[in-house]
Amino acid sequence: MKNLRFLVLHGPNLNLLGTREPGHYGHVTLADINQSLIELGDTLGIEISTFQSNHEGELVDRIHQAASDNIDGIIINPAAYTHTSIALRDALLAISIPFIEVHLSNIHRREEFRHHSMLADAATGIVAGFGATSYLLALRGLQDHLRQI
Ligand code: DQA
Q1: In whole angstroms, what is the distance from residue 13 CA to residue 3 CA?
Q2: Which of 10, 56, 67, 125 is the S-S candidate for 14 at Cβ 3.0 to 4.6 Å?
């Protein structure tokens, strides 16, 4: 079976996980999440690269780079850019690599402005509300999707 390469992107303020609004996001840190993704990737034969930025343009640049890096799939928690960013949407559509949108919290249980995503209708799937486990579910879902096509 071919090894897959996934890029995991984390948007603004996710570098503060662990201390940021634990009622919504728990106590897990971004380093913990990345480590658990790498470990699950190892067992599934998936190479994981991770990138976090608080800057929209840097995330756009990293998405463009995914095409030349031969990335098979993207897992993205766009954080607040979920609700605002046409630029991230356009970048993901431009490279046509399948992606999963991930949220730690269930955005539909929260403020109304979080209910809309600029990316969701272009995503292969969405996982929200399971805390750090959302990322691991996305990893398994994306690998099943890619191994079937
Ligand atoms: C989030 C939800 C977003 O609404 C919020 O702006 C975030 C994190 C989540 O993972 O639950 O920063 O994407």
Answers
A1: 31
A2: 10
